[in-house]
C-alpha cells in the first residue's frame, strides 16, 4: 500500500498524526510522555459523571497500556514532531501492529459502559484532549463521527473513524474531526 502513497498524501498523514500528538500532550511540555497518558486518565475520571471505581481503574490501565504500546516507559520523553513521524511511519507500514488501541480508547470514552459514546461523554473526553476547543467544534466532531446521525457514537462508527484517521491518506471530513480540526 505505501508504495503508491504520494509525498502529498504522506504530508497529509503526518499532519493527522501531528494533530493527535499535540492533542495528547496534556501537560503542554512539547513532548509525549507517560505523564500525559496518566493525566488523560486522571482528568477523564475526574470529569466523568457517576463513574464507578472499577471503570476508573480500567481507564487508568487502558491509558497506561496505550503509553506502553507507543513505547513510553517511565522517564521516556519523545518530542511531538518525532512522535508524529514515528506514528505516521508505523501506521503506513504494511506490517503495522494490530493491537486494538482504538477499542481500548472507545471503552475509556464510554465511561458508563453502555456500548455507546453519548455527546456528554464525548465532551468530557474532548475537553481533556482539546482544552481550547469550543462546544461547537466538539459537536461538529461528534456529529461527523456519528455517521448514521443516531445521536450516539457506536463502537463501529468510532472504529471506522479511527481507521480513516490512521490508515487513510485522502483528505476526509472524518480525519478533520477524529481529533478535532487538523492543525497546520
Ligand atoms: Ca507532554
Ligand atoms: Ca456511554
TrEMBL record:
GO molecular function, one term: calcium ion binding
Keyword Metal-binding among UniProt keywords: yes
SUPFAM superfamilies: EF-hand (SSF47473)
Matches recorded under Gene3D superfamilies: EF-hand
Annotated keywords: Calcium, Metal-binding, Repeat
Recorded superkingdom: Eukaryota
Pfam families recorded: EF-hand_5, EF-hand_7
Cited SMART domains: EFh
Record's keyword annotation contains Transferase: no
UniProt xrefs under PANTHER family: CALCIUM BINDING PROTEINS (PTHR23055)
Protein's UniProt name: Sarcoplasmic calcium-binding
Amino acid at each position: 500500500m505505501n508504495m503508491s502513497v504520494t509525498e502529498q498524501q504522506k504530508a497529509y498523514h503526518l499532519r493527522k498524526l501531528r494533530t493527535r500528538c499535540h492533542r495528547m500532550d496534556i501537560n503542554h511540555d512539547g513532548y509525549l510522555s507517560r505523564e500525559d497518558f496518566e493525566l488523560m486518565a486522571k482528568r477523564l475520571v475526574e470529569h466523568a459523571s457517576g463513574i464507578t471505581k472499577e471503570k476508573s481503574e480500567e481507564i487508568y490501565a487502558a491509558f497506561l497500556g496505550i503509553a506502553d504500546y507507543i513505547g513510553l516507559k517511565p522517564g521516556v520523553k519523545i518530542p511531538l514532531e518525532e512522535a508524529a513521524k514515528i506514528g505516521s511511519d508505523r501506521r503506513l507500514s504494511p506490517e503495522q501492529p494490530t493491537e486494538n488501541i482504538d477499542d481500548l480508547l472507545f471503552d475509556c470514552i464510554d465511561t458508563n459502559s453502555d456500548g455507546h459514546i453519548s455527546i456528554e461523554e464525548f465532551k468530557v473526553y474532548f475537553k481533556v484532549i482539546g482544552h481550547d476547543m469550543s462546544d461547537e467544534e466538539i459537536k461538529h466532531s461528534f456529529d461527523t463521527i456519528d455517521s448514521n446521525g443516531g445521536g450516539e457514537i457506536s463502537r463501529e462508527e468510532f472504529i471506522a473513524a479511527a481507521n480513516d484517521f490512521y490508515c487513510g491518506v485522502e483528505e476526509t471530513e472524518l480525519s478533520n474531526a477524529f481529533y478535532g480540526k487538523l492543525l497546520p
